[in-house]
Amino acid sequence: MTRPHPHIRQLTRTESIRRALLFALTAIALLVGLLRDETRLVLQRAIQICLGCIGIG
Amino acid sequence: MANLKRLKIKRNIVQGLALLLGNANLPGFVNGTIYQGPLKRVCLPGLNCYSCPGALGACPIGSLQNGLADPFWRIPFYVLGLLSLFGLVLGRFICGWLCPFGWFQELLHKIRSPKLNLAKSHARLHKTLLWGKTAMLSGLVILTPLLLRVLTGYGIPAFCTYVCPSGTLMAGIPLLSANEGLRGLAGWLFSWKMSVLLAVAVLSVLIYRPFCRYLCPLGAIYGFFNRISLYRISVDPQLCTHCGRCTRQCPMQVPIPYDGNGPECIRCGECAAVCPEGAIRIGFGKHVKEQDQASGLSEKTR
Ligand code: SF4
Ligand code: SF4
Fold first, then answer.
1. Residue B237 belongs to what domain range?
2. Domain count, chain B
3. What is the pLDDT of residue A5?
4. Are residues B183 and B65 part of one domain?
5. Do residues B278 and B257 both lie within one domain?
6. What is the mean pLDDT of residues A3-8?
């Protein structure tokens, strides 16, 4: 069997903690966004033709 | 090799389905109009213009800029939350399997021509250019809309307006072709955006995914999450013989097998498909238990 290589990078403990924290922050951001009815704002913009996107400025 | 061929076919099918599912409003292409239904409350994961006649969802980068540019919206929590969720769960798997503009560049790269590999031929230039994604994100997606809002009261989605070639391809060309009224309005900006699209297209024939590597702000966001995303690469150090097949195969020149979860890996799976030992796994969950790997390492150092 090949000997394990010390330079194969694994998920570190700090990264696992960062992942958990970011999941928590994501949940909060989504909740705040939904409570502020931001999906309506996204919709409002997305249903108008964006003149910048199509190159008419 | 059979593995690799199968994988490539599978990925093309998924990329095609993702394009169809995200852009299923087909009558829009004929009428020159866009879908205006409730599905557009949700952002699609890839760089998929919301002004594309077929688009059923919103573009995450466009929505982010609109949120920052709008004096009443200010902080777009919902869009930031969605982007973060996509990144945490999938990372750049979205680039490799779901984004229509990534697929467009890949298809162009199949055209027979001499190929350029900047990572090998001009390593320093390549490394510098990799920062372009972050520059686009911070400069045109975040700072410009934000600063314009502060200074003038209302910002503009600067990346969409001056750069986004996905918008030109998916929205500009089909809308202007089908809608005479809009066609009459096209001026210098449209010519500029067509030149950007053309440049990206020509470069894509020569370089594998040049826009994804060097310019895409969405790639920069998902790249940030790649290191910690749930969908990830694991390499079994007990099985890997360091033969270098994966390193040579990787189209993004990721330092696999040593560090497969950096910001550039698009989870295409080609490294895993060519590994003769089956040492590379890509997916959810810890295929190779990270504890096992750690104990493998400590055994070695014991
Ligand atoms: S880097 Fe951007 S354009 Fe490329 S696949 Fe990812 S999101 Fe799409
Ligand atoms: S490391 Fe593997 S999955 Fe990632 S881009 Fe390279 S070949 Fe594709």
1. 231-296
2. 2
3. 59
4. yes
5. yes
6. 62
Residue of minimum CA distance from atom 4 in ligand 2: B265
> Cβ–Cβ of B258/A11 closer than 8 Å?
no
Confidence band (pLDDT; 50, 70, 90) for B299? very low
pLDDT band at B287 (very low <50, low <70, confident <90, very high): low
Same domain, B173 and B60: yes
* CATH of residue B258: 3.30.70.20
* pLDDT of amino acid B212: 98
Q: Do B65 and B156 lie in a common domain?
A: yes
- B140 within some domain: yes
pLDDT tens sequence across B208-263 = 999 999 999 999 999 999 999 999 999 999 999 999 999 999 999 999 999 999 99
Residues B72, B193, single domain; the answer is yes
Domain-located, residue B76: yes
* Residue B12: other Cβ atoms inside 10 A: 14
Q: How far is the CA of B215 from the centre of ligand 1 (A)?
A: 9
Alpha carbons A41 and A37: distance in angstroms, whole number: 7
Query: Cβ separation of B156 and A52 shorter than 8 Å?
Result: yes
Structure ipTM = 0.89
pLDDT digits (tens, 9 = 90+) for B165-186: 999 999 999 999 998 888 888 8
Contact B301 A6 (CB under 8 A): yes
- The residue in chain A having the minimum alpha-carbon distance to the alpha carbon of residue B72 is A41
Question: Among the three residues B196, B224, B252, which one is the final residue of a domain in this structure?
Answer: B224
Instruction: Kindly state whether residues B270 and B167 are assigned to the same domain.
Output: no
User: Model pTM?
Assistant: 0.92
Q: Is B43 in the pocket of ligand 2 (CB under 6 A)?
A: no
The verdict on the CB of residue B218 being under 6 Å from ligand 1 is: yes
Long-range contacts of B207-210 (CB under 8 A, 24+ apart): B207/B109, B207/B115, B207/B116, B207/B117, B207/B118, B208/B105, B208/B106, B208/B109, B208/B115, B208/B117, B208/B251, B208/B252, B209/B102, B209/B105, B209/B106, B209/B109, B209/B251, B209/B252, B209/B266, B210/B105
Which single residue is written with the structure tokens 């003038």?
A: B152
Instruction: Flag whether B250 is in a domain.
Output: yes
pLDDT at B296: 42
d(CA B260, CA B282): 10
- Please check whether residue B34 lies inside any domain of the structure: no
* Contacts across the A-B interface (CB distance below 8 Å): 186
